[in-house]
């Protein structure tokens, strides 16, 4: 198996084991610990050693991992990579149970900019965090991944909506609650059905559960990731936006560590993966919150050193880009239509929806050249709106150099997205060049 093929298999495994942000973080932590990284607690004093790797998790769904370099951070700066752990999905409401026409359903809330139509007629399961009291009365939590299909959102037959293929509006409140089964209870108020089911599931998994108190659960498609195409040129999966970037950043960080075993890196390298990007990042664990800045300030030691460190630092914000669609090519600017398997995309927006500027674009293109990988540019059509990333937030909060890049993909924010088998690998090679070679100037 080639290095690229092994990389893609690792990406597929990561996507499959990460149905929720909490699962993604847990999977990354396992890989970090296997590589010798040590856990840090934000409530304790840190005693950091040069050359050692560390990780911190906040809220169970956001992660910062870094390898401390041999040089003081005020002299070398920090080589940072950023991504986000969340994806648009359907989240279960606190009082979710619904009885309609003899069917048990769960009410859901749309999280992020979901492309709704693809969610219909899919085999859905549940995953996320469950908070419960154990038999001793202590409040604790556990990850839940049901794995098997337990729900479906059935489409309305075309015979009952002859205009479905022309104009089919979806009302999230009325049309999206998944069906879990027939109502088998005699109770007209099924308000505890979900919590009782979750308690039973957790007990079977070995947890001591007296009462389920709350949860953060999302539905997901059980269809596994796959290589697609006559030559398997594509990767098709849920949550490529943006777990592809989380995996690629982590792989780059650990790959450089392996290469530097006999000669530790002089500069500190860091990966941040935030939750809540899809809803604006305004939370204690989102990019708008203080998580990354608080870690960086603790690394620097004092304000003077912090300012010197940031002046020598750079963040590569990795979030997937819109590949040109062969059936909708007119949705792209004619000179800025990224192609799949043609390299990572440098994302530019004059209105600062992306944080890229000419300096950081030139720097990233030089990393691609060093790694001998192609790169592309994306600028949205002048008559269309533009999405955003954690890049502008990091640039504003930290005053650090930022470039926004990403692997090109189709079907962004669908329940199933498509990217190329080469592009994540290309991006990872460029990130490794950044970590290994950039001198902070």
Give a brief rundown of this model.
With 441 residues, the protein is an alpha/beta fold. Helix content is 28%, strand content 26%.
Task: Characterise this structure.
With 441 residues, the protein is of the alpha/beta class. The protein folds into two domains: 3-86 and 238-437, Aminopeptidase, CATH 3.40.630.10; 89-221, Aminopeptidase i, Domain 2. The chain has helices at 3-16, 21-34, 73-76, 172-175, 193-204, 240-259, 291-300, 303-311, 358-371, 391-398, 423-437, and strands spanning 38-39, 53-58, 62-67, 78-84, 89-100, 103-111, 124-133, 139-145, 179-182, 211-221, 226-228, 234-237, 268-274, 314-318, 321-322, 345-347, 376-378, 401-406, 408-410, 417-420. The strands form three sheets. The chain has a nine-stranded mixed β-sheet, sandwiched between helices. The chain has a six-stranded antiparallel β-sheet with strand order 8-7-10-5-6-9. Helix 6 (240-259) packs across helix 11. It is globular. It is an enzyme of class 3 (hydrolase).
Number of strands: 20
Q: Specify the oligomeric state.
A: single chain
What is the gyration radius calculated from CA atoms? 23 Å
Q: In the CATH hierarchy, what is the architecture of the largest domain at level 2?
A: 3-Layer(aba) Sandwich
Q: What is the name of the CATH class of the largest domain?
A: Alpha Beta
Distance between the termini: 38 Å
* pLDDT averaged over residues: 94
- Pairing-aware structural class of the strands and helices? alpha/beta
Count of distinct structural domains? 2
- How many strands, which pairing sense, and closed or not: the largest β-sheet? 9 strands, mixed
Cα shape? globular
């Amino acid at each position: 198996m080639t290095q690229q093929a092994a990389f893609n298999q690792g990406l597929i495994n990561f996507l499959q084991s990460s149905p929720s942000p909490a699962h993604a973080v847990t999977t990354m932590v396992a890989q970090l610990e296997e590589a010798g990284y040590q856990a840090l607690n934000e409530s304790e004093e840190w005693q950091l050693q040069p050359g050692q790797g560390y990780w911190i998790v906040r809220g169970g769904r956001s992660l910062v991992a870094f390898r401390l370099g041999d040089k003081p951070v005020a002299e070398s700066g920090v080589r940072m990579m950023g991504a986000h752990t969340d994806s648009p999905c359907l989240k279960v409401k606190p009082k979710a149970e619904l009885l309609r026409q003899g069917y048990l359903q769960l009410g859901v809330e749309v999280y992020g900019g979901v492309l709704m139509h693809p969610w219909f007629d899919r085999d859905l399961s549940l995953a996320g965090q469950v908070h419960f009291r154990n038999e001793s009365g202590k409040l604790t939590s556990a990850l839940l991944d049901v794995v098997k299909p337990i729900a479906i959102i059935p489409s309305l037959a075309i015979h009952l909506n002859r205009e479905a293929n022309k104009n089919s509006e979806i009302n999230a409140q009325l049309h999206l609650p998944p069906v879990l089964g027939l109502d088998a209870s005699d109770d007209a108020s099924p308000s505890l059905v979900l919590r009782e089911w979750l308690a039973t599931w957790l007990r079977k998994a070995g947890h001591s559960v007296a009462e389920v108190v709350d949860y953060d659960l999302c539905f997901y498609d059980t269809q596994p990731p796959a290589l697609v195409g006559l030559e398997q040129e594509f990767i098709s999966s849920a949550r490529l936006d943006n777990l592809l970037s989380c995996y690629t950043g982590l792989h780059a960080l650990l790959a450089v560590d392996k290469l530097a075993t006999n000669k530790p890196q002089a500069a500190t390298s860091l990966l941040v993966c935030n939750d809540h990007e899809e809803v604006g990042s305004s939370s204690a664990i989102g990019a708008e919150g203080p998580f990354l800045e608080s870690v960086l300030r603790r690394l620097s030691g004092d304000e003077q050193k912090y300012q010197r460190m940031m002046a020598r630092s750079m963040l590569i914000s990795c979030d997937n880009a819109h590949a040109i669609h062969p059936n909708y090519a007119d949705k792209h600017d004619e000179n800025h239509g990224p192609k799949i398997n043609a390299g990572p995309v440098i994302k530019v927006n004059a209105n600062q929806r992306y944080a890229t500027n000419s300096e950081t674009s030139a720097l990233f293109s030089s990393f691609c050249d060093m790694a001998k990988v192609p790169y592309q540019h994306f600028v949205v059509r002048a008559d269309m709106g533009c999405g955003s990333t954690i890049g502008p937030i990091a640039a504003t909060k930290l005053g650090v150099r930022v470039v926004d890049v990403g692997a090109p993909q189709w079907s962004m924010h669908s329940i199933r997205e498509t990217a190329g088998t080469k592009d994540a690998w290309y991006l990872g090679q460029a990130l490794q060049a950044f970590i290994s070679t950039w001198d902070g100037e």
